[in-house]
Amino acid sequence: MPVPAPRRLVPGLVRGAAVAVAYLVAVWISRGISVPPLRVAPIRPPQGVYLTALLLTPVSKWWVIIVTLLPINLFGVGGNIVIGAQYFVANSLEALFAASASR
Fold it and tell me: Any idea what the Cα angle at residue 26 is, between residues 28 and 11, rounded to 5°?
């Protein structure tokens, strides 16, 4: 008997929410260790969370992780959506490239 569509979506949504929370915590950590005048962090914990999430997720479900992290990147940069979109593209390409190369 096939599983109804809403029940199939629940695990993906839970995984996406968990990744979003971990990514947000990593962003706060990264901001805490950033160099004050430049606001540049010596390490990027959010990228580690992003890459780990992609490596632990089947390739067919990567879109869930990417879509889940879109609002954090867009609105997590102090409200500047253009810079947030640039961060989103850069962070996503970096994580996708690393995850693809690792597989």
Answer: 125
Give every CB contact of residue 84 below 8 A, 6+ residues apart in sequence. 73, 74, 75, 76, 77
Q: How many CB atoms lie within 10 A of CB 44?
A: 17
- The alpha helices in 5-80, defined as continuous H runs, are 5-32, 45-55, 62-75
Contact (Cβ atoms closer than 8 angstroms) between residue 57 and residue 95: no
N residues, the chain: 103
Q: Provide mean pLDDT across the span 30-57.
A: 87
Residue 40, φ and ψ in degrees, nearest 5: -115, 130
pTM of the model: 0.82
Per DSSP, the three-state class of 35 is strand
pLDDT tens-digit map of 4-29 = 566 666 777 788 889 999 999 998 89
